[in-house]
Structure prediction request, 617 residues.
Amino acid sequence: MTDLTVRIGPATLRNPVLTASGTFGYGDEYAHVVDPALLGAVITKTVTLRARTGNPPQRIAETAGGMLNSIGLENVGLDRFRLEKLPRLRALGAAVIASIGGETPRDLERLLEALAAESGISGFEINFSCPNVARGGARYWAVARRLEATLRRLRPLTRLALIAKLSPDVTSIGDLAKACEQGGADALTAVNTFVGMAVDLDALRSKLGRDTGGLSGPAIKPLALARCREAAAAVRIPVIGSGGIMTGRDALEFIAVGAVAVQVGTATFVRPRAALEVLEEMRAFLEARGIRTLGEWRGCLAAEPA
Amino acid sequence: MTARSRATAITEAPDRPLTHATAEPSGWRQVRATVARHLDYGAGHRWLDLDVPGPFRAPLPGQFVELLLAPPSPVVLPRPMSVASASERSGGLTLGFLYAAIGSGTRALAALPAGAAVDVLGPLGRGFPLARPGTPLLIAGGRGVAPLLFAAEALARAGRRCEFLFGARNRARLVGLERAREQLAAMGGRLHLATDDGSEGESGDVVRLLDRRVPGFGAPLVIHSCGPHGMLAAVARWAERSGVEAHVAMESVMACGTGVCRGCPLPRSAARSTAFREAETPSLFGNREFAMCCTEGPVFNALDLDWDHIE
Prediction:
């Protein structure tokens, strides 16, 4: 058996396949078809201080090889997350990484203060990269000094893993990755969705209610792979690859360019068991080649350190 | 009685959807089905019978499934499709679908021969509350007839009569008309037809037909309707004016179909928004402002939606 365990800061995960935030709900929605305890971790839907009702319809548009979404961080808010969602997540026995999102550094501090003492959480992914909100979205956070200063404020609030999720729509993802490392992040996620648009020519307007959305799915895998490689080469902390992973082979490409783990997102909307299938395919591939630990495969195609 | 007080009263009835204080998933599964038959239904429409292996929960009229084409497929996401017929067979179910091949996904689906594989995820969402006391009045517009053919099938099996109104632009677009006739003959129900161009049945739209025929129907009536959203809005307004309970099957672009992606919101009516209590509502459903078509619907009480903001 290939040893697939991975370390993300202080957390040890049983394997490198995680669910991407926003594509696995709060962990229990798919539990009758996917045992979430078999995954590396469940990353929850992004939680904000107050509940959000999300963007107006239409929120989804399929495009060539992918999909645009403009959900707008619809979520139940911190209070209901703690009271209703976390207890269910704990009962499932999965490693839980709570995704948190805020409009300001202070919002993130308050979320972390509220959640740091909760049991059953292995770490936090900070959503610095939502493309679909007017305030506190990808553009606001894509500033190296802001990321570093914010992480410096968050770092003392928890000993659990702090993961910064980055947008690909930036001039240099390496610079932002370094800023997060400097600020004290334990790991990075590269990448969130790419800003995209689709037009309805008959109605002569955007297919999405909020004009632009985030592009995901197979169409973005080559783009995400290059961003992930660039981020991994810029820092010493682990990078979690994300973007268009549909199969175990896709996941192994991200590991080859330097990712320590991967996230499966859009694939779950197509096949709810996709994350488990990715894991099984990865394992079979590595075992067929006699690879004993994931570390032997990791970074075999990594870029030179920047 | 004002619209708002009536909406609130219905909210508090025991079988109203939001009083289901459970977040249990509906027990859906994804299984590999086989095309049993694929028939031409005219005007660009197809009838598809899929043999679905068990265990797979039998869908209710108004529920839908997500159909996923085997690779290589021209599309990424599965396609939501309402069930038009369901029957048991040894080892599983046969599910029937009536659809128009209009996009790249449905065109690829239309090309599948008998024996081809299609992944089916379901059953999803909530169906028509056919057990509500009263005379079921089924109102179909065009290919929106699909879930109502299933409703008529279920009512016929239960030995209940219904009135069936069916409208379309023209005769050719009264798709599935023969199936509807068969189901209604089995139960002794009546079929009432309307076309915009008068090529079949009465001339005009289905709401005009409703106005004319309703005096001959046995009260109380319970409307179950599916069709273009413009038609459903007209049915909803007619029902509210007339004090008739109406349940409508809505459409939306969807990704997951299971409540996870939050991609298919429909705006709630002011009355419903006010009555909405988040603490009692599973988050698989929507929020104060929007209901998710996939889990809270696709069948809604017409009073629950904001028809001024539905496209």
